[in-house]
Amino acid sequence: MTAVHTQRPIVEIQDVSKRYRIGSQDSSTLGGLLRRALGRRDTTPAMDLGARTGDLPGTFWSIRDFNLSVERGEIIGLIGRNGAGKSTLLKLISRITEPTKGTIRLRGRIASLLEVGTGFHPELTGRENIFLNGAILGMKRWEIQAKFDEIVEFAEVGSFLDTPVKRYSSGMFVRLAFAVAAHLEPEILLIDEVLAVGDAGFQQKCLGKMNDVANRTGRTIFFVSHNLGAIRSLCTRAVLIEDGTAKMSGPPEDVITHYLSTTQTGGGGVPGRLAWSDAEAPATNELRLQSLTLTNVRGEVSALFDAAEPVRVELCYRVLQPIRGGRMLIAVYTSDGELAFVATDHQLHEAVISPGDYRTTITIPGGILNRRAYAVTPSCDAPGHRHILTSGPYLPFTVGGTPNHLSQFPERWPGAVCPRVETKLEAIPNAK
């Protein structure tokens, strides 16, 4: 009898857990070892993190009993709230850090793009870093040279190729890092939200390249993003991570729908409102979100709206450093992850937004949205230049009531929007 050989998964994650210490260095670091040698006690206060509380005082589980098997050529989209464990999982797969428990088996070369500048030596030029990264991936010099021109052209940094990368902007860093990772042909490619640092045009270029890489060469990609539209269009499978575990895995449309329908409210559990403390807020060194609130025509906080009435989206935030050319945006998605529209306050800001507290209110007119479930997410960017704060928290809401097309039929009208339109009907007399 002839033996049947089945191809093994390219990535196998079995019962993986990662424990971190809160408020102090891990014992595997030099500082932690010195404290242990000196007999210093851990003074970290106990914290209640629910199921994620560690089995040792002052610890928590960032990843807990995680299992995932990935076949060659799959594009895996990892979604979940901030702090769910997505980035930790990628660091475990890339072996930047080791799991506390469990095993991860990789059957191929791996390249990762997790943080701006990762894998680059700041004193070396762009040219030298291309060859350095290729060597780290185990490629021969001639292999790197064969891809060199493609990398430079894709990254759009030809004029700065012989400049030390410490002088690169964050956008230039990302362009070169992605070009190297995508063109030097690793079997496994890990990409975190770092792509959001680039401008919108380059993001689309990267998404197209990832799709081409996976379809043409059969490489496997792990993609972490809060851009549900990108997850929906690019990925072959999505994995929802909640509290460090794989909550759901399946077709992107199904996983996104589940994620948006179960997004928790903030501000004491009030539907239609998300609020954060300074420690928990989505933030960068330039901007920190404070709250996201939906109100109806009566000024009431709500997550349920009539199709004929406006929806007011109120976004409160603190600018920490002057932002040149910045604007706040909201993106409204349908419950299956389809982008309905984006709105911005760009006409209201000065050329430079000064530090301080601000409130942006965007009103979606009545008679626009269709009757269905939606989710709104805020972000901030400098158009044509960079993303300042990527989308992250999703606030769900539902539009119901009288349909905008005034039909009394109980049908579910297709589409994300359903604007009222003017119609006219007239009989045309017979022409003689």
What does this structure look like?
- This protein folds into 2 domains: 11-260, 3-Layer(aba) Sandwich (Rossmann fold), CATH 3.40.50; 273-400, Distorted Sandwich (Coagulation Factor XIII, Chain A, domain 1).
- The strands form 5 sheets. Strands 5-6-7-3-8-9 form a 6-stranded mixed sheet, with helices on both faces.
- The chain is α+β, with helices and mostly antiparallel strands.
- It has helices at 30-37, 86-93, 126-136, 141-155, 170-183, 200-217, 228-234, 252-261; strands spanning 11-21, 59-70, 75-79, 101-106, 110-113, 188-191, 220-224, 237-242, 245-250, 273-275, 287-295, 304-306, 311-319, 323-324, 327-334, 339-344, 352-353, 356-364, 373-382, 386-389, 395-400.
- A hairpin with a 2-residue loop joins β8 (237-242) and β9 (245-250).
- 35% of the residues are buried.
- Helices cover 21% and strands 30% of the residues.
- The longest helix is centred in the middle third of the chain and has 18 residues, at 200-217.
- The radius of gyration is 25 Å and the shape is globular.
- The chain contains 8 helices and 21 strands.
Summarize the structure.
With 432 residues, the chain is α+β, with helices and mostly antiparallel strands. 21% of the residues lie in helices and 30% in strands.
